[in-house]
Amino acid sequence: MKRRDFIKTSGVVGALSLSGIGISALANPVKPDLSFPRYRGFNLLQKFGGWGPRRKFEEEDFEIMAEWGFDFARIPMSYWTWASKDDWYTIDEEVLKDIDEVVEFGKQYNIHINLNMHRIPGYCINGRDQEPVDLFEDTPENMQKALDAAIFHWKLFAKRYKGIPNSRLSFDLINEPPHLKEETPYVRVVKALVKAIREEDPERLIVADGKDVGRTPVYGIVDLGLVQSTRGYDPMSVSHYEASWPPRDSFQTFNVPTWPLTGDDGKIWDKAVLKALLIDTWQPLVDKGVSVHVGEWGCYNKTPHDVALKWMEDLLSLWKDAGWGQAMWNLKGDFGVLNSQRADVKYEKYKGHKLDRKMLELVKAY
C-alpha cells in the first residue's frame, strides 16, 4: 500500500465517501459512532516485540480470518519497531509502510483494524524497566517527557490515517496499564492522548484498556466517548500454566489445572466466579453507555487441551451473553488455533499449518 493511496482517502471528502455519506450531508453532520459492534478475531503480532528482524504482516492471516468469518484484528505494536528507546523522535518510514499495509489488508478483507501501542514511550507491561523513564511512576519531569513522546507517536498515526472511517480502523492507546492505587495518573495520560489524537482526527474511534493490567474499568474517562478493553486471562493458573513471564503471585496454584479450578487457598474457580469477576465488575460502566471489548484472551499451550476448552467455553458464553466481542491472543502460536505446539492435540493440516480444529470450532460457535 503506497503512502499516496492513503493521502487520497484523507480529508473530509475522503472520509465521507468511504463511510457512504454524501457531500450533501455536510450541512447536517452525523455524529460518529464511537462504540464497537461485537467484533471477534485475533491479535496479530508482527510488530509486537520490537526486536529481531523486521516482520511484515501476512495477507494469508486475513484470508484465513475472513474465510472463518472473523472481522477483527488487534495489532499490538512496540514503538521500538519504528523508533527506539534512545531516540523517540526519529521515525523509520519503511516500518510505518508495513502498518499502512495491514490497514489496507483490513479494508480488502472487511476486517476491522485496531492499532494498539503495546509498548509506548515510558511504559510496557513486559520489560517496563527497559524504558529510560516511566510514564506513570517517576519524577513529574520524566513522566511529562514520556507523555510528550507518547503524544508525538499517536499524533503521527492520527494524522497518517485521518479520513479512514471508524468501521475500518480504531486506536487502542496503551496496552495493559499498570496496577495503580487510584486511576488518576492513568486518566491524566488517557485524556492527554485522546486530546492529541482528536486534534488531528476529531472523529477517530479510540479504545482505552482498563487499569490494573486491563482488569478494572476506568470511570474518569467515561465522558470521552471511548470503548474500554478488558482481558480474559483469569484464573492465571489455567490461562498461563507453566508460563515463565507472569509474576508468581498471579497464580492461584501451580498444580496441573482442572476446570473448575481449586486454588491453594481452597477457593473454587468456576463459571459463576468468572461472571462476577469479569462481567459484573464492568456492568456499572456498561450501564453508563460504554462499549466493552475483550482485547486479549487465550490459553497457553501447556494447559491440558480438554481443560482449556472447558474454560474457554465458559468465557465465550459469558461474553456472548454480555454482547461483548473478543480478540484471541493469538492466531498462530502458543495461544492460537494454528501451530500452537500442544502435545495433546491431534492437529489437522490446513494451508501448510497445524490446525486445532476443536478450538477453532469452539471460538467460531460464539
Query: Ends: how far apart?
Result: 33 Å
Low-confidence stretches: 1-29
Element-by-element helix/strand order: HHEHEHEEHEHEHEHEEHHEHEEEH
Strand content: 15-25%
The top-level CATH class is Alpha Beta
What's the architecture in CATH terms? Answer: Alpha-Beta Barrel
Overall radius of gyration:
20 Å
Average pLDDT score: 92
Give me the number of helical elements: 12
**The CATH topology:** TIM Barrel
The CATH H-level superfamily is Glycosidases
Largest sheet, in brief, is: 9 strands, mixed
- Total number of beta strands: 13
| Structural class by helix and strand composition | alpha/beta
Summarize the amount of helix as a percent range. 25-40%
Tally of structural domains = 1
| Overall shape | globular
What can you see in these coordinates?
The strands form 3 sheets. Strands 1, 2, 3, 4, 5, 6, 7, 10 and 11 form a 9-stranded mixed sheet that branches. The protein has helices at residues 3-9, 11-19, 59-68, 93-109, 140-160, 184-200, 211-214, 236-239, 271-279, 283-287, 305-322, 357-365; strands at residues 40-43, 72-78, 112-120, 123-124, 169-172, 206-209, 227-232, 261-262, 268-269, 292-297, 326-328, 348-350, 353-355. Strand 2 (72-78), helix 4 and strand 3 form a beta-alpha-beta unit. Helix 5 (140-160) packs parallel to helix 6 and helix 11 (305-322) packs parallel to helix 12 (357-365). The longest helix has 21 residues, at 140-160. The chain is built from 12 helices and 13 strands.
